Structure formats: C-alpha cells, structure tokens
C-alpha cells in the first residue's frame, strides 16, 4: 500500500495513528477503579504545557494502523474500551466505534472537545482546555466534565465550562499531577464549599500502573 492510499484510509478513519493500546485500570473520573482497554490515538494540536503524554502530539511518529486490527486486539482483553490521545477527535472515529459497537463493546472517549464529535459513544469525558475550547455541540452530550487544575484561575475556568454542560453532566476537578501537592488542598476546600463538584485523582499513578 503506497503513502497516498494510506493517507486516504487515515482521512476516512479506516486507519488511525495508534500510539499505544493496553489493558489496565481506569484511574480517573466516574469509572475509576474499573478494568478497561485503552486505545491511545496520536495527534494533538491543543498543546497543554503540562501534558504527560507529549509524545502523542505528533501523529507522524505513530504508524497508521487498520481499525479492524485495533478492534480485534482490544476485544481479546475487554468489552470496555477507552479511546484517548492525543486528541482522538482529530480523526474520524465512526469506523472504529461502529466496529466496536457491532461486537458489543462499551466505548468511552476522553477528549478536549476541540474538534467536532464523530463516532458513537457510551460515555463522553470532556476535559476542556483554555488553549483550544470545545466545540459547542459537545457540551450537550458530555457525561462528565473533568477540569484539570494547575493554578487558581482554573477554578474560574471550571465554572465557565460547567455553565455550558447539560444538567446531568458530572463535574470533576482534578489536580495537575506535577502541582498536586499545592493545588489539592485548594481543590478540597473548593469542593466542600461547592458540593456540585467532585474530586478526581489520577489513581493509576498512585497504583503505579499505566
């Protein structure tokens, strides 16, 4: 298959720049503590300075992989699939999710919402970033809003984002890992004063698992 053919398949979402995929325990948000198979798609231009997977940003570093191959490998481990990145919505997610759904999988996505929604999802975790804000339509369908707190201004940003999501969306504040010791007491105090919010932790890092 030549480069032009590969690029055409990537454009349609039939191939995706797969960075890594692995079976582990979900560490964050509503489903923390549950087993799931993670599919990490390369490519992201949001560019958060504190991102802990900067190696995912350049899609060219991650080989285009056929969706059927990704699906077959994932379903050997779990029927709960988490698609993350990078920013997975950079790409057309419909081919991947339609094949997973046809095989009975429950599919979650973790996204900044910076690109239009594609694909069919059972759970949508919206983690908005100031650098590139979500598209309007994702606020209506988000199941959880997870705002990363790096500094005090992020509380204001969190409230601005919470005002846009649907009434059933679960609200989480999560300390940025490198600044967690400074921000966690502030998050605890904030949640106690504003109990519509919950605390999310990167528990997988405490468990020393991927």
Automatic annotation (TrEMBL):
EC nos: 4.3.99.3
Recorded catalytic activity of this chain's protein: 6-carboxy-5,6,7,8-tetrahydropterin + H(+) = 7-carboxy-7-carbaguanine + NH4(+)
Superkingdom of origin organism: Bacteria
Primary enzyme class: lyase
Cofactor list: [4Fe-4S] cluster; Mg(2+); S-adenosyl-L-methionine
Keywords: 4Fe-4S, Iron, Iron-sulfur, Lyase, Magnesium, Metal-binding, Queuosine biosynthesis, S-adenosyl-L-methionine
Pathway: Purine metabolism; 7-cyano-7-deazaguanine biosynthesis
Residues annotated for S-adenosyl-L-methionine binding in this entry: 50-52, 86, 127-129
Note on how the cofactor is bound: Binds 1 [4Fe-4S] cluster. The cluster is coordinated with 3 cysteines and an exchangeable S-adenosyl-L-methionine.
Annotated residues for binding of substrate: 25-27, 40, 84, 210
Pfam families assigned: Radical_SAM
Binding site for [4Fe-4S] cluster: 44, 48, 51
Role, per record: Catalyzes the complex heterocyclic radical-mediated conversion of 6-carboxy-5,6,7,8-tetrahydropterin (CPH4) to 7-carboxy-7-deazaguanine (CDG), a step common to the biosynthetic pathways of all 7-deazapurine-containing compounds.
Name of the protein: 7-carboxy-7-deazaguanine synthase
